[in-house]
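wait is this the right file?? whatever heres the structure
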């Protein structure tokens, strides 16, 4: 089956209005194409250095890398290795700031996987991952979502924390994604909560930093309809407004095809626009694995997905 990468500059969030409206005349299906907001000259892209190994000391297999960059070009990479989550920070020229560090610490050995990272302009960052978790000893396949935050020097500012608060015992919670505001004062984690084989929800929880980190008392759902929402992503602007996108099964008359949806909230967690279908047609095929991005100033966002 032919599968293309599609994208849509999906919506402009109106200033002073809680309702988005489509941009232009809607998406045009093509391979590796986007709808432009304005005419821009393409940047020249060239490597600034050779290919480098992130971890030069380990001989173990390494999986699932994720990376994020600060405003000055410094960046960090996280990955899964031997059931643990590791990370390393780099300067903009590709030289390492320090050695490899371990992200997870409450559980080691084949228990942690699928990391994601997001970084603020000043180089502070947050990592989230999935971890096997069986608090009552009855379900060894039970998983939960963890996160940990760091400042620009790599020092921990939020120690390993369990993200979900809802019905977490003996449930599968995985596929986490995270986005931190460019100021570094808040971040949002989204993930899939599997209640049973036919009931999946996407959940969200926001963390805030004043002198220290705090969080929403409870996690919240992102969708109000449908029995299967999965594979989510999130983008946050500098003010803390954010958009979540996800797959939803059964939108067209209860069939098994999957469509892409999104919804948006402001920095206080108030819904700005309710769940909206992103793809305009499906051609009888499913849409998968959506990703979303938005600029620091907000107002726009773009969703890309696999068709």
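ok assuming it is, sequence goes like this
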């Amino acid at each position: 089956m032919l599968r293309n990468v599609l994208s849509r500059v999906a919506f402009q969030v109106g200033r002073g209005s809680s309702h988005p409206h489509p941009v232009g005349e809607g998406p045009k299906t093509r391979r590796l194409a986007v709808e432009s907001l304005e005419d821009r000259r393409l940047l020249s892209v060239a490597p600034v250095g050779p290919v480098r190994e992130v971890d030069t000391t380990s001989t173990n297999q390494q999986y699932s890398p994720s990376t994020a960059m600060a405003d000055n070009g410094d960046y960090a990479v996280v990955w899964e290795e031997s059931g643990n989550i590791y990370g390393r920070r780099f300067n903009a020229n590709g030289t390492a700031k320090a050695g490899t560090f371990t992200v997870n610490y409450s559980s080691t050995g084949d228990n942690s996987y699928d990391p994601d990272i997001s970084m603020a302009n000043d180089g502070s960052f947050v990592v989230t991952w999935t971890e096997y978790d069986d608090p009552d000893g009855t379900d060894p396949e039970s998983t939960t979502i963890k996160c940990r935050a760091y400042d620009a020097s790599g020092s921990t500012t939020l120690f390993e924390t369990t993200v979900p608060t809802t019905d977490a015992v003996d449930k599968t919670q995985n596929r986490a994604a995270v986005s931190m505001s460019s100021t570094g004062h808040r971040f949002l984690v989204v993930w899939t909560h599997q209640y049973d084989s036919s009931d999946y929800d996407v959940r969200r929880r926001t963390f805030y930093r004043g002198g220290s980190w705090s969080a929403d008392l409870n996690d919240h759902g992102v969708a109000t309809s449908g029995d299967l929402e999965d594979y989510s992503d999130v983008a946050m602007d500098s003010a803390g407004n954010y958009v979540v996108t996800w797959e939803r099964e059964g939108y067209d008359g209860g069939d098994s095809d999957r469509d892409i949806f999104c919804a948006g909230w402001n920095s206080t967690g108030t819904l700005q626009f309710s769940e909206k279908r992103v793809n305009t047609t499906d051609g009888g095929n499913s849409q998968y694995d959506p990703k979303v991005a938005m600029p620091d100033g907000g107002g726009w966002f773009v969703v890309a997905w696999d068709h």
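Residues 47 and 93 are 10 Å apart (CA to CA). so i think its the right one actually
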